[in-house]
Write a structure and sequence with these properties.
The chain is mainly α. It is built from five helices and two strands, in the order H-H-E-E-H-H-H. It has one domain.
Length: 168
C-alpha cells in the first residue's frame, strides 16, 4: 500500500513534471554523444555489416550505423537516468514544502532540477573521458556508467536539501 501512496504522491506533485523536463535535456545530450562515440569505436572491431563497403554521408557504413544506434541508445539511457534521479530528488525535497507551482517558485524548481541533472551529466562525461583513455569504445561506455553511478551515489548520500521559498 505504501508503494501506491508514493506513486500517487509523485503523480500529484506538479514539481515532478518540471524536474522531468529539466532533467532529461542534459542527460540525453551527454548520453547521445557518449553513445555515438563509444559505438563508433566499437564498430571498427565488431562490424555490423561485414559486406558493407559503401560510404554513407562521407563515413563508412559500419561507423555510421553503429554511431546512430549508439546515439539513440545513449539518448534514451542518459535521459532516463538523469530525469529519473532528478524526479526522485525534487519529489523527495519538495513534497513537504510545495504543493503548487507559481510564478514565484518555478525558477527555483527549474534551477534546482537543471543543476542536479547537469552534475549527473558532468559525472557521465568525466567518466567517459577517463574510460576512453584506457580503452576507446568499451572503456568509454563503462567509464560513463562508473562516473554516473559514483556521482549518483554522492548526490544520494548528500544531505543538502533544495532551498525553495515557503508558500504563504
Amino acid at each position: 500500500m505504501n508503494i501506491v501512496k508514493n506513486i500517487i504522491g509523485i503523480i500529484t506533485n506538479p514539481n515532478v513534471y518540471l524536474a522531468a523536463v529539466a532533467g532529461v535535456i542534459p542527460g540525453a545530450l551527454t548520453g547521445g554523444v557518449i553513445g555515438a562515440l563509444s559505438s563508433g569505436y566499437i564498430s571498427n572491431r565488431f562490424g555490423l555489416c561485414a559486406e558493407c563497403t559503401d560510404y554513407l554521408l562521407g563515413f563508412h557504413a559500419n561507423l555510421f550505423i553503429a554511431s546512430l544506434i549508439g546515439f539513440i541508445i545513449g539518448v534514451i539511457l542518459g535521459g532516463a537516468v538523469t530525469a529519473g534521479f532528478t524526479i526522485y530528488k525534487i519529489h523527495k525535497d519538495t513534497i513537504q514544502q510545495l504543493k503548487t507551482i507559481s510564478h514565484d517558485n518555478i525558477t527555483d524548481i527549474l534551477f534546482a532540477a537543471f543543476s542536479m541533472s547537469i552534475k549527473i551529466s558532468l559525472g557521465m562525461g568525466a567518466g567517459a573521458l577517463v574510460g576512453s583513455l584506457l580503452s576507446p569504445g568499451i572503456g568509454t561506455a563503462l567509464g560513463a556508467t562508473a562516473g554516473t553511478l559514483s556521482l549518483l551515489l554522492v548526490l544520494f548520500i548528500s544531505t543538502n536539501k533544495i532551498c525553495l521559498p515557503q508558500q504563504n
